[in-house]
Automatic annotation (TrEMBL):
GO molecular function, one term: acyltransferase activity, transferring groups other than amino-acyl groups
PANTHER family: ACETYLTRANSFERASE
Record keywords, A-Z: Acyltransferase, Transferase
Residue stretches spanning the membrane: none
Organism (species): Blastopirellula marina
Name of the featured protein: N-acetyltransferase
Pfam short name (any one): Acetyltransf_1
Lineage, uppermost ranks: Bacteria, Pseudomonadati, Planctomycetota, Planctomycetia, Pirellulales
Amino acid sequence: MITALNIRFPCIRRASIMQVEQATPKTDGVEDAVIAILSQNAQATGFPFRPEPVVLKIEEEGRVIAGLVGFTNWEWLYIETLAVDAAYRGKGLGSKLVEQAERIALERACRGVWVDTFTFQSPEFYSRLGYKPFGQLEDFPQGQRRIFLRKLL
């Protein structure tokens, strides 16, 4: 595994060697720094990148048994992750989370929701909620497809 790589960047003011390093997610502050750079670049185009988190959970006896993580930006909600504990699947918890996220999206003046899932993760779940496919990646992972779905609100 490569954890650091020295690269010469002649386009930088001082032709120096900088190191590309593997960062620790959520602790090194890299995500925030990258978003700040993206925001500066997007500001110039008139489309500032200002994602607002959507984080929902369902608990039982103080334990999270289902949750949804995503964000709204540019009038769209992106559902990044939806998970329901195996013991609680089929009880409508996932649907309730998605419906609540859609309500939040509407409150934030979003016009749609998009999500990606996999053929091995029941894309039919989203179809039942009115989501329509708009793209896919074959063999992601091997023998499966990553499916992109959207729903207009």
